[in-house]
């Protein structure tokens, strides 16, 4: 049986295509390996200089490009940080709270521009005129921290007690007139969420965010309920690590009380590229940070632009949030146009969080990942 010239050519093209595809996969694999090794080397330098202790994860479109852990979760017991170690994420909690509010909005439970006295009647008239829009935009005029108006205690303070504290304060400026970051904004959002859903804030987050995404290593911490396998927080004093003070977790309600590990944050990041948590309209509002009185702050996300690699020649949208508490600092960068995630979780303070993040970003750009 004779083989036609066309069949022979077809076979040659098929073999050539297969070889080219194989070579392409090999090159991508080598490329990723080199990238990972470079990131590991860079981060190890920070660790050796006592400028980092924690874990870093880098992913693109849900695929992990690099993940590594450095230093100790518990220095006294010689327990290493691992890629599964949990960390407090501080103010990055605000991104989660904003998403929960948008879920409530999608269900028709809240309106963003309605005075919150509708949901919390006990608020005084001045605070009652605030809206979820002003709260989530950090444009309310409320104090930055609760410790400005009360002595914090290591106990689980109730929502009713928090409301009484809020009613003792005065707004520093007309709501909506400027941007001024305040943890109280998101604490009030959490209490609104409780009122309209009939669920404690902690239960709502577990039921509607953590469990649906299989975020089994994430949760809300309270004074008497501390996560197992969570890294201890440390302060760097004169070159030595000292156990940090305990955080006042229930006073951080909705604004800084979440713990997570890097893999869970990847699950959360991936879900935000679909409608698993919120719809497209909600995401548009979450990421709306055009320059104005709100300091490029969206709802629960700080909104920036980033330079993409020279081959792409356009800027992209970066939505991010960091967090800082006693003994912990984190940074979460989400590069929307390239679906890239950088997570930096540390259990020491201080360390150059943003410098580390931007060093990783520049490395990714050099490899055309961004």
UniProtKB/TrEMBL annotation:
Protein location: Membrane
Question: Where do the Beta-lactamase-related domain residues begin and end?
Answer: 55-350
Q: Keywords assigned by UniProt? A: Membrane
Pfam families, alphabetized = Beta-lactamase
Q: Which InterPro entries match?
A: AmpC-like (IPR050491), Beta-lactam-related (IPR001466), Beta-lactam/transpept-like (IPR012338)
GO cellular component terms listed in the entry, alphabetical order: membrane
What PANTHER family does UniProt report for this protein, alphabetically? D-ALANYL-D-ALANINE-CARBOXYPEPTIDASE/ENDOPEPTIDASE AMPH, PENICILLIN-BINDING PROTEIN 4
Q: What is this protein called?
A: Beta-lactamase family protein
Organism the protein comes from: Pontimicrobium aquaticum
């Amino acid at each position: 049986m004779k083989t036609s010239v066309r069949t022979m050519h077809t076979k040659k093209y098929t073999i050539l295509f297969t070889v080219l595809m194989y070579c392409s996969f090999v090159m991508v694999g080598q490329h990723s390996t080199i990238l990972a090794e470079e990131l590991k080397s860079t981060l190890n330098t920070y660790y050796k200089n006592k400028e980092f202790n924690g874990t870093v994860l880098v992913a693109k479109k849900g695929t992990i490009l690099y993940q590594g852990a450095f230093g100790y979760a518990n220095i006294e017991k010689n327990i290493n940080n691992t890629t599964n170690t949990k960390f407090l994420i501080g103010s990055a909690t605000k991104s989660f709270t904003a998403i929960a509010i948008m879920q409530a909005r999608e269900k028709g439970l809240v309106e963003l521009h309605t005075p919150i006295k509708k949901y919390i009647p006990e608020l005084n008239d001045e605070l009652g005129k605030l809206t979820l829009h002003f709260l989530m935009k950090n444009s309310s005029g409320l104090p930055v921290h609760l410790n400005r108006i009360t002595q914090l205690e290591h106990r689980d303070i109730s929502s009713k007690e928090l409301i009484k504290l809020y009613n003792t304060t005065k707004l520093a400026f007309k709501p909506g007139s400027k941007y001024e970051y305040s943890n109280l904004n998101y604490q009030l959002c959490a209490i609104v969420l409780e009122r309209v859903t009939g669920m404690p804030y902690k239960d709502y987050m577990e039921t509607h965010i953590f469990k649906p995404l299989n975020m089994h290593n994430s949760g809300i911490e309270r004074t008497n309920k501390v996560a197992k396998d969570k890294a201890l927080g440390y302060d760097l004093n004169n070159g030595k690590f000292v156990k940090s003070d305990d955080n006042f977790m229930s006073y951080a309600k909705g604004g800084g009380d979440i713990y997570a590990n890097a893999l869970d944050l990847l699950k959360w990041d991936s879900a935000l590229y679909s409608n698993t948590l919120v719809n497209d309209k909600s995401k548009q509002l979450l990421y709306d940070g055009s320059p104005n009185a709100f300091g490029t702050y969206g709802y629960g996300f700080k909104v920036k632009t980033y330079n993409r690699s020279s081959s792409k020649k356009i800027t992209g949208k970066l939505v991010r949030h960091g967090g800082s508490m006693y003994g912990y600092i984190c940074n979460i960068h989400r590069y929307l146009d390239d679906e890239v995630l950088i997570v930096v979780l540390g259990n020491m303070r201080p360390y150059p969080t943003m410098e580390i993040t931007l060093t990783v970003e520049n490395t990714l750009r050099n490899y055309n990942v961004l």
